UniProtKB/TrEMBL annotation:
<keyword id="KW-0813">Transport</keyword>
<dbReference type="InterPro" id="IPR017871">
    <property type="entry name" value="ABC_transporter-like_CS"/>
</dbReference>
<feature type="domain" description="ABC transporter">
    <location>
        <begin position="44"/>
        <end position="278"/>
    </location>
</feature>
<dbReference type="InterPro" id="IPR003593">
    <property type="entry name" value="AAA+_ATPase"/>
</dbReference>
<feature type="region of interest" description="Disordered">
    <location>
        <begin position="257"/>
        <end position="306"/>
    </location>
</feature>
<dbReference type="InterPro" id="IPR050153">
    <property type="entry name" value="Metal_Ion_Import_ABC"/>
</dbReference>
<feature type="compositionally biased region" description="Basic and acidic residues">
    <location>
        <begin position="265"/>
        <end position="283"/>
    </location>
</feature>
<keyword id="KW-0378">Hydrolase</keyword>
<feature type="region of interest" description="Disordered">
    <location>
        <begin position="1"/>
        <end position="48"/>
    </location>
</feature>
<dbReference type="GO" id="GO:0005524">
    <property type="term" value="F:ATP binding"/>
</dbReference>
<dbReference type="InterPro" id="IPR003439">
    <property type="entry name" value="ABC_transporter-like_ATP-bd"/>
</dbReference>
<dbReference type="Pfam" id="PF00005">
    <property type="entry name" value="ABC_tran"/>
</dbReference>
<keyword id="KW-0067">ATP-binding</keyword>
<dbReference type="GO" id="GO:0016787">
    <property type="term" value="F:hydrolase activity"/>
</dbReference>
<feature type="compositionally biased region" description="Low complexity">
    <location>
        <begin position="1"/>
        <end position="40"/>
    </location>
</feature>
<dbReference type="InterPro" id="IPR027417">
    <property type="entry name" value="P-loop_NTPase"/>
</dbReference>
<comment type="similarity">
    <text>Belongs to the ABC transporter superfamily.</text>
</comment>
Amino acid sequence: MSETAGNTTGENATGANTTAANTTGASTTGANTTGAKTSGETAFSMTGGKVTLDRRPILRGVDLTIRPGEVVAVMGTNGSGKSTLVRALLGLIPLSGGQTLLYGRPPARFRDWWRIGYVPQRLQVGGGVPATVREVVASGRIARQRRLRRTSAADRAAVADALEAVDLTARAGDPVQHLSGGQQQRVLIARALAGEPDTYVMDEPTAGVDAETQRLLADTLATLVLQGRTIVLVAHELGPLEPLITRGVVVRDGLITHDGAPPRPEGECARPGHEHVHPHAPDEPGASEILGRGAGAGPLNWQGEA
Ligand SMILES: Nc1ncnc2c1ncn2[C@@H]1O[C@H](COP(=O)(O)OP(=O)(O)OP(=O)(O)O)[C@@H](O)[C@H]1O
């Protein structure tokens, strides 16, 4: 991964593209042009993954394979290990056991970081360095740029599209530190979008983001989904993203307790205004029908907390 704004956060231990991305200009890199659709290829493949932090086991043996084009929601209670899991998938946290592969390679040997757009959980996006919103978003292009190459029209267009996608065009020249927490989250999303990756890993992208912006993000992600991009997102509340999800993974106490049908609101949860989404029965129409895709398999047992 390249030197990006992600590095200023200390998030990017591997050089992976924690940067920005373009949802809208994504067509310029359609999934086919990336090779992401190669038969049998896996985007992420973790086998027996263990993570120990402060001598405490946090991931306790995770097997998880994610194929190109899947839209996966990683859910679970606070502290269950969701962020640790996605960061370990990217190689941002070393495993204490097992292995993880990124497009078939261990993170240390993975070179195509432009393929990955990572949106970390809320951070100080400027990392203490004075930077404008546009500069932070433009840092998402770095993994795509050759060294010392001048900014191209394509770079500028991707940054403009990304800013538009999160409704921050009017704030492009402002210091990023002057933005609210929710706006800074939108900057992180735009940074990922600007890089036009084929694979997005988003850690609670809608946390603290207002309803209108969540809908904007859902529209943007819907475009990416139709283009065959791979999306892994950690979420407590799926809100308007819910119809896009093709697979739900529930983490509990460092283990995956459900991997299959995505959550569907029903009963009380389906009422207008109720945004808390649980995994529900797998026989309801969902994103697979909406998007004409195959759903994740397996029965649902969200009593990950029972
Ligand atoms: N750097 C660290 N050192 C020690 N323990 C850590 C560290 N980072 C996370 N943990 C612990 O690992 C566990 C899982 O944390 P993680 O952030 O993965 O949970 P999560 O499911 O993403 O939670 P949330 O929904 O609150 O974001 C927690 O108990 C947390 O305290």
